[in-house]
Each structure stands twice: as structure tokens, then as C-alpha cells.
Design a protein that fits this description.
Blueprint: E1 2-5, E2 8-11, H1 18-21, H2 23-48, H3 53-58, H4 62-99, E3 119-124, H5 125-131, E4 153-158, H6 187-190, E5 225-227, E6 241-243, H7 260-292, E7 297-303, E8 319-323, H8 326-335, E9 338-340, H9 360-378, E10 382-386, E11 390-392, H10 397-401, E12 412-416, E13 429-436, H11 440-450, H12 453-459, H13 462-476, E14 481-483, H14 492-496, H15 501-509, E15 516-518, H16 525-534, H17 542-554
Parallel strand pairs: 7-8, 7-10, 8-9, 12-14
Antiparallel strand pairs: 1-2, 3-4, 5-6, 10-13, 11-15, 12-13
């Protein structure tokens, strides 16, 4: 195990044998015992020496005896010291073997972990993410070029000698030389010999006492989470035990398994889906084809009567509205927009607005949003899905269709929600605005989401369920997921945060023109309406706001905009 602090390495290598730790005391005890023994022998010899002349002539003198005792004592001391030195040298050789590498440079890490940490380097996070963009966003308050204190660098561990960028110098992985610190390298140079690179994204979740263990073993593509958790709160007095990734320090579990009741509800929804699938596809196919055009893209919106006043600001000829009630059906027809409505499929969908995030009306609409995208994606079209509380400043479709745009390599792209809670990790994908490219990976994703209706119902939002699937599918099938820049695709996070006030002023004054503004992070429709008006982004006439949109739409033809449905400033793009 290695802990690196301020560029130095502290090794916690293998422990020495217990007897070796007490070797000096053993040697000293032996010497004292030997000295006492020979001193006793000498004293006895002195006491037994007779004063007669005969004895003096036939026995050794006292001085000779003392000399002999001292000689033997020195020989014994030399033998014991030699044993101690030999043992010490053996341990030193063993340690050196653990620290040395083939070319003679000292290892930064011991030999016991050489297959997972042969060497190391630091890379600027901005440089690394630009080079290896996995689509995961930085903190929403940080622009792409800004620093992220405490997390500005990426720690790269080399798993073998072959993966080092320069095996001839040893500077990447050793402690010798004038500068023993971990070298700071560019992303391109540091990874030039990495044939495989596993990337781990992690955070300390608000300063928790978190540790990271990397275990050389059968490889897993998930992080196993352990917590000192007593069921309600974190308690350091109890042992660590395995928990799900949704368990928070406050005791809430954001990913509890759905109960049987939710499974039965989803079973009923799926039965309706499959019973009506063939007829639904027959009706939808010509509509989708007329919307798709040359770029094969359909703009999809799901709406009930309470929210219908918000879908005027889109590209009308590419828009396909999924009406969940007859009121929206009439309004969409009045606008000359392609609209699909099936009373069997949407018979249980509410006409009233959601009073708050996660209530029954909200949850039912979330399920409808899954089905609509899945159907169009299944037909072979790209899908731009958006909520009705969103206004375009400029057409975003060219952004997604530009093959020179680095984002064109991603399969699915989301607006940044702004939240960084565990349940939306790691992409913080906002499901109120996202673009889906048609391919087998995205088809598999939305089929999987369709069958997770019990999870959607239990969590009251498809956003959380989809967030979990994005992480799983990006690992499992290589699905390329991208969270879009908050400065180009801002939402309610930017509108409601004081730290973003200068950014919002730049939008209002026209200094910065993003693609859109999504009034997310807002409690209900009344507040959304108020804030959009404050931004000068509300174009629906007062007659429609009071509930007259349906009547006005019925009095209009399908090819002309009904009078007073929208103001003169409305941007219905054709």
C-alpha cells in the first residue's frame, strides 16, 4: 500500500519476522549470560589455587586463565555478531529486491503491487478530459477551462514496464534523481504506450472520510461501495459493510428495489403497449417519415392540455407531438403539427398539470416520455426529445448534425441537469432535452428502459432510472454518452443560482446567445410561466393562458395558425 503526500512516497511493505525485531535484545542477553558464566569459572579457579610451589608449577597462572576466558568470550561475541549481521543483510537484500527494478532504478511502489502500480504520473484533468472525453461533466459551476481545486490532476498508474512512456530514463516511476516527485506529464505523452486504460471517476461526497482500494484481481467494471452504516446514519464505531451505490450518508437509499406492486403496475402498462403496438406503428410510421426529412431526425414532445401552451417555439415541420389527451390533439391540429393520440394507450394519463416534481401526474407523464422516444428510435430515426418548458434561441439541430463537431461521435447527448447527487451519477443527464442517434446501442438502451417501468414508478421519475442505465450501458455495450456544455445549453440550475447571475445577465443583454434555455429546477407550471415572462421568452397570448387554446384551435384550419393562439413575436420555425 502506498500513500503519496506532497510528492513523497511512504511504503507499507511486508513486515519483518517477529524474532528479528528482538534480535539486539537476544544478543545482549546472550553476551551477559556468557560473561557471567566465564566470570564464575574464573572466580572458581582463583579460589581453588593452592599456595604450594608444586601447584604453581603444574597449573596455569591466574593471568593466563583470565586471558583464555577473554579470548573465548571474544570468539563467542564475534560468532553471535556474525549471525546478526548475516540476518540483517538477508533482510536488506530482500527489501532491495522488492524495491529494485531490472534496470537498477528504485521502484516508486513495491514489487507486491507491480502488476497494478508499476509506476505513476500526474496529468492535468482539463488536458485529460479533453483528450479522453467520456462525456461526464465537470461541476456545473465550472467551465471547461476552469480549475477544480483539490481535483485538478489525474493520477495515472502504470500496470507494467511496457506501458511506461519512456522505459530508458526511469523518471516516471522511481524515487531517485534530483526530483523524486511524481512527474507531471501531458495526457498524450503519459498514455502513449497504454494499450488499455481503465478510468475511474470518484469524489469525496462533501468531504467524507473516504478511502480508495485498488485490488489486483478478476476485473470488475463496477465500484464496490462499503460504508460504516447502521441503517440510518454513518457510524465510525461499526465495521464497514457492503451497500448499494444509492445509500446516502443521511440514511436514504435512492435505489431501493421496486416492490411487487410496482411490478404489477408495469406489467399492466406493458400489456397495453404490446396489445396496441402493431396498430400504433402503422399510424406512426407515415407521421415520423414526414417529420424526419433529409437529416433523419424527428423532434418529439409529450404534452397534456395543461402544458400545451408551451410548444410553439420549435421547428414545426419536424415536430411530432404525442398528445396524452384530446385537448392537446385539437391544439396541435390547429398549429398544423403532426400529432399522435391513442385513447387506449393514454386513457389513464392525467389532463391536469403536475403540482410538483414526482407526484402521480408527473410520474405518469414520465412513463409516456419513455414510450414515445422508444417507438421513434425503434423505427430507425434520430430523436430530439424536449419538454415544453424550453425555448430555443437558435436551432440546435445543426450542432448535432455537424460531423466536424467532436460531439458527433457520441450516441446520446443530454443537457446538464446541474445536480450532482448520487442518483444521477455520473452524467447528471437532464431528460428534458436530449438527442438520440439511431443505432443498435441506443435501441437496446430504450428497450431496457421500457422494461424498467417498475423502477420508474417507484422512483417517480424516468430520469433516475435512465441515469443508472446510461452508466451500465456505457460500460456494457460501449454506449457513448455525452453531457452537453452548460454555457451552450443552460437550464434552471443557471437561472436559479446566484453564482450564475452574471452569466444570465449576458444572456438577457445578448452578450452571450446559447442554443436554448430550459426552465428546469422550478416547482410548477405557474412559476415556470412567471420566470419565462421575466426573461422575455413567453410568446403565447393571454387568451390561451386562460384556457382558451382548445376552443381557438377547433375554430382554425389545420394549415393556418389560429388567431390569438400565439403573439406576433412567436418563433414558429418552418
Amino acid at each position: 500500500m502506498v500513500s503519496i503526500r506532497n510528492g513523497s512516497s511512504h511504503r507499507g511493505g511486508s513486515r519483518s519476522p517477529l524474532w528479528l525485531a528482538y534480535l539486539p535484545q537476544i544478543v545482549m542477553l546472550f553476551l551477559v549470560a556468557t560473561t557471567c558464566f566465564y566470570s564464575g569459572v574464573l572466580l572458581g579457579m582463583k579460589m581453588n589455587v593452592a599456595p604450594s610451589e608444586k601447584s604453581r608449577s603444574t597449573s596455569l597462572s591466574v593471568d593466563e586463565v583470565e586471558a583464555e576466558v577473554l579470548r573465548r568470550l571474544k570468539l563467542q561475541q564475534k560468532e553471535v555478531t556474525s549471525i546478526a549481521v548475516d540476518n540483517s543483510k538477508e533482510e536488506e537484500i530482500k527489501n532491495k529486491d522488492n524495491k529494485k527494478k531490472d534496470d537498477g532504478h528504485d521502484r516508486r511502489f513495491p514489487k507486491t503491487i507491480s502488476k497494478i502500480a508499476y509506476g505513476s504520473a500526474l496529468i492535468s484533468k482539463n488536458d485529460f478530459i479533453q483528450q479522453f472525453d467520456y462525456g461526464i461533466p465537470k461541476p456545473p459551476s465550472k467551465r471547461e477551462h476552469e480549475r477544480d481545486p483539490g481535483k485538478d490532476d489525474v493520477l495515472l498508474l502504470y500496470g507494467s514496464k511496457k506501458s511506461l512512456p519512456d522505459v530508458s530514463t526511469g523518471i516516471v516511476h522511481t524515487n531517485d534523481g534530483p526530483n523524486p516527485d511524481i512527474p507531471h506529464l501531458t495526457a498524450t505523452y503519459a498514455t502513449k504506450n497504454c494499450a488499455v486504460m481503465n478510468v475511474i471517476y470518484t469524489d469525496t461526497h462533501g468531504g467524507e472520510d473516504q478511502c480508495m482500494a485498488i485490488v489486483g484481481n478478476y476485473e470488475s467494471y463496477h465500484i464496490q461501495r462499503w460504508l460504516r452504516f447502521d441503517g440510518t446514519t454513518v457510524d465510525k464505531s461499526i465495521p464497514l459493510h457492503a451497500v448499494g451505490r444509492g445509500v446516502q450518508s443521511n440514511g436514504q437509499d435512492k435505489f431501493e428495489a421496486p416492490s411487487d406492486s410496482y411490478a404489477l403496475q408495469n406489467q399492466a402498462l406493458l400489456k397495453t403497449y404490446f396489445d396496441r403496438l402493431e396498430e400504433t406503428m402503422a399510424i406512426l410510421k407515415p407521421m415520423a417519415a414526414s417529420c424526419a426529412g433529409d437529416d433523419n431526425t424527428v423532434i418529439v414532445m409529450v404534452c397534456n392540455t395543461a402544458d400545451a401552451r408551451g410548444f410553439g417555439d420549435v421547428v414545426r415541420k419536424k415536430l411530432l407531438i404525442f398528445a396524452t389527451d384530446e385537448g392537446v390533439l385539437e391544439i396541435a391540429k390547429g398549429l398544423g403539427v403532426n400529432v399522435f393520440y391513442d385513447e387506449k394507450i393514454f386513457e389513464k394519463m392525467p389532463e391536469e398539470e403536475a403540482k410538483r416534481y414526482g407526484d402521480r401526474a408527473f410520474t405518469q407523464m414520465m412513463y409516456a416520455k419513455i414510450v414515445t422516444v422508444q417507438l421513434i428510435n425503434r423505427m430507425g430515426y434520430d430523436v430530439l426529445f424536449q419538454d415544453v418548458d424550453l425555448v430555443w434561441y437558435k436551432n440546435p439541430l445543426p450542432f448535432f448534425h455537424d460531423k466536424e463537431n467532436p460531439s458527433h461521435n457520441f450516441d446520446i447527448l443530454f443537457q446538464d441537469d446541474g445536480a450532482r447527487s448520487l442518483r444521477y451519477a455520473p452524467y447528471s443527464a437532464n431528460t428534458g432535452f436530449y438527442y438520440v442517434r439511431n443505432n443498435d446501442k441506443t435501441k437496446f438502451l430504450f428497450r431496457s428502459l421500457l422494461f424498467l417501468g417498475d423502477m420508474v414508478l417507484s422512483m417517480t421519475s424516468h430520469q433516475q432510472a435512465l441515469a443508472a442505465l446510461l452508466d451500465e450501458h456505457s460500460s456494457l455495450t460501449g454506449l457513448r454518452v455525452k453531457t452537453l456544455s452548460g454555457s451552450e445549453f443552460p437550464g434552471g440550475y443557471h437561472y436559479h443560482r446566484k453564482k450564475e447571475i452574471d452569466f444570465m445577465k449576458d444572456i438577457v443583454t445578448g452578450k452571450h446567445i446559447p442554443y436554448l434555455l430550459h426552465m428546469s429546477w422550478t416547482t410548477n407550471k405557474a412559476n415556470k410561466l412567471l420566470f419565462l415572462k421575466q426573461m422575455g421568452l413567453w410568446y403565447t397570448s393571454e387568451g390561451c393562458e386562460s384556457g382558451g387554446a382548445v376552443d381557438l384551435a377547433k375554430d382554425s384550419s389545420e394549415t393556418n395558425l389560429p388567431p390569438m393562439l400565439v403573439t406576433d413575436k412567436a418563433r414558429i420555425l418552418t
